[in-house]
């Protein structure tokens, strides 16, 4: 039984709205902490780990809005939460923040032993420490404020690459990255950076031209978390 502790900002059940698992009921575990510094980040409240903002598990589970507070949980604690809250999903999405700042193997092992499948969503800037069966979504964040490089090991481990796009420059950056890291077979999902028509049209046209897939953040169209 793993006694490994994780700093959790949010834990909830919803529908995965992005990438290969779109439509899959999923338990989302959002880890606190990210130094990558993407300007458009929609989870900036996860960036800092402030020890004075540690809260009891129940307070974290009943947050009514996004904020920087977090709770410490072991994988076993999380399994108890899934049961107590009556979660039915059997797929777990480990996200952040940047979840790969920490070793996720103990979490994956504990969940897989109970019949859950795991997926991690990462920026590709940290070593990915997960189980062999964990599905890895790399959303490469190039030239961000934090100054982290995309790792070859992350690009090689990826089961899917998910890239936000708003401009032609983003598409060119992605192509250069795929070439540099010799990514040829891994499915590529383009994700419009917003629900605006221009970004969406660019993503559609680029997907058709390159035989890439479109990921439209279904949860944002549905107005769910
Ligand atoms: S890597 Fe993710 S959490 Fe971190 S700044 Fe970028 S978008 Fe936000």
Automatic annotation (TrEMBL):
Binding site residues for [4Fe-4S] cluster: 34, 38, 41
Cofactor(s) it depends on: Mg(2+); [4Fe-4S] cluster; S-adenosyl-L-methionine
Q: Which UniProt keywords apply?
A: 4Fe-4S, Iron, Iron-sulfur, Lyase, Magnesium, Metal-binding, Queuosine biosynthesis, S-adenosyl-L-methionine
The keyword 4Fe-4S appears for this protein: yes
| Binding residues annotated for Mg(2+), in chain numbering | 43
Please describe what this protein does. Catalyzes the complex heterocyclic radical-mediated conversion of 6-carboxy-5,6,7,8-tetrahydropterin (CPH4) to 7-carboxy-7-deazaguanine (CDG), a step common to the biosynthetic pathways of all 7-deazapurine-containing compounds.
Q: What is this protein called?
A: 7-carboxy-7-deazaguanine synthase
Q: What organism is listed for this UniProt entry?
A: Thalassotalea loyana
């Amino acid at each position: 039984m793993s006694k490994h502790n994780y700093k959790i900002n949010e834990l909830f059940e919803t529908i995965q709205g992005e990438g290969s698992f779109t439509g899959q009921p999923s338990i989302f575990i959002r880890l606190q902490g990210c130094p990558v510094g993407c300007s458009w980040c929609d989870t900036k409240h996860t960036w800092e780990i402030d020890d004075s903002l540690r809260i009891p598990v129940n307070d974290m589970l009943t947050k009514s809005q996004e904020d920087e507070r977090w709770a410490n949980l072991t994988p076993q604690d999380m399994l108890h939460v899934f049961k107590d809250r009556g979660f039915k999903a059997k797929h777990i999405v480990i996200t952040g923040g940047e979840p790969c700042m920490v070793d996720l193997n103990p979490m994956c092992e504990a969940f897989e032993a109970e019949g859950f499948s795991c997926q991690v969503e990462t920026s590709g800037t940290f070593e990915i420490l997960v189980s062999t069966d964990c599905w890895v979504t790399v959303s490469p964040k190039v030239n961000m404020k934090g100054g982290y490089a995309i790792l070859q090991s992350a690009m090689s481990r990826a089961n899917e690459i998910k890239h936000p796009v708003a401009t032609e420059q983003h598409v060119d950056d992605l192509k250069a990255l795929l070439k540099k890291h010799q990514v040829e077979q891994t499915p590529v999902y383009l994700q419009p950076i917003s629900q605006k028509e221009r970004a969406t049209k660019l993503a559609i046209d680029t997907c058709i031209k390159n035989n890439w897939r479109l990921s439209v953040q279904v949860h944002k169209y549905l107005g769910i978390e």
